[in-house]
Structures are given as C-alpha cells and as structure tokens.
Specification:
alpha/beta, Spore Coat Polysaccharide Biosynthesis Protein SpsA, Chain A, 7-stranded mixed beta sheet, two-stranded antiparallel ribbon, 19% strand, globular
Length: 207
Amino acid sequence: MTPERPIVSPGYLASVQPIVLVGGKSRRFGRDKLREPWGSDGRVLVQYPIEALRGVFGRRVKLVGACDPTVEQLADGVIADLHPGVGPMGGIVSALAQWHGSVFVLAGDMPSFAGMEITSILRIAQMHPSAHVVCAFTDRLQPCAAVYSQHARPFLEASVSRGDYKLLSALDPIEALPVSVAPEAAKNVNVPVGVHQVVVQPGRLRS
C-alpha cells in the first residue's frame, strides 16, 4: 500500500512509531476477535487498524501484546510486551520504553478508525510537542486511539508500579489534548457481528 500524502511533516511522521495493541483476551467476544473475518473483502478484524496506520505511516506498523502467530504475520514487526497481563497501559509503556520518540496507539479491535482521524491527531501532536498525550475524543477520551509522547511515560510507569492499570485514571493528571472524532470511528468490537451485516469501504466501516 502506498502511504497517503501526509498532512504532517515527514520528519515528524518518522519520529512516531505506530503500534496496534493486540494483547486482549476477547472474553466478551468468546473467541479470538482479532482473527474474526470482518467486512466483505476477506480481511480479519485486526487488519483494519493495521492498514489504517500503514496508509499514513507506511509499512512499519508494529504489534504490542501476545497474539496468535497468524496475527503477527499481518503487521511489520512486534514490540515485546514488558508488562504482560496489564492491558493497554502495559503495551503503551512497553512501546515507549523501546522507542525513542512518541507512539501512535490504536486498539486491535477498532476497525473504523481511518486515516482522516489518524492525521487529525498527528497534526495536533505536531503542533504541541510538549503535550503528554493527544487523544481521540467522542463523548469521552478514547485512550486507545492517541499519540503518547515520552513525557507521558513516567506517569504511566508510575501507574503500573501502583497496580493501577486504568488508562483514563492515568490521564487525569496529564491533561490530555482532545481531538474530536466521530463516535463510530472509535467504536470497539466486543461481540460477534455477522460478516454479511458489515460492508467496509476504504478507510470507513458502515452497516
């Protein structure tokens, strides 16, 4: 896939590592939802956030978290999860610990988040280099669709050390910058949906 013409500078894009969080247990779904067939084009659920990030960053999207080997093969590498079992916060801390700059985080079960939303967040992050977090916002912050800078790392590591793994709680003292996105863009898939009930258009999921 050829990356879309970036709205942010190439230098800033290169400084950000795109990651997809894949370490969930899919308890509510009842099976490995990341491998669930999704849409009408033969792809599985986790391919949508991977391809959305590739459309902006190119083929350097990495996964964080334990997942099936077939899922690993869909991305461009894996970042070791230094805090397995902790959830999204552990994956984000792990990525920040192993990358020198900021990370763009998407959840593996967020198939509707597209290049438009990604570049909107990146533009704000580039404009505010001292920001700890630049986060998608619907009716609330969406902490698994965000840019986390190295400024956020000590706060997140402190939360992990305390055993408080809730991302929204960790963001309270950080004052994350919100970027409004459409509610449907930030929806997570938590229950099975019939494949034929969903038609996917490039960069967008609709029923």
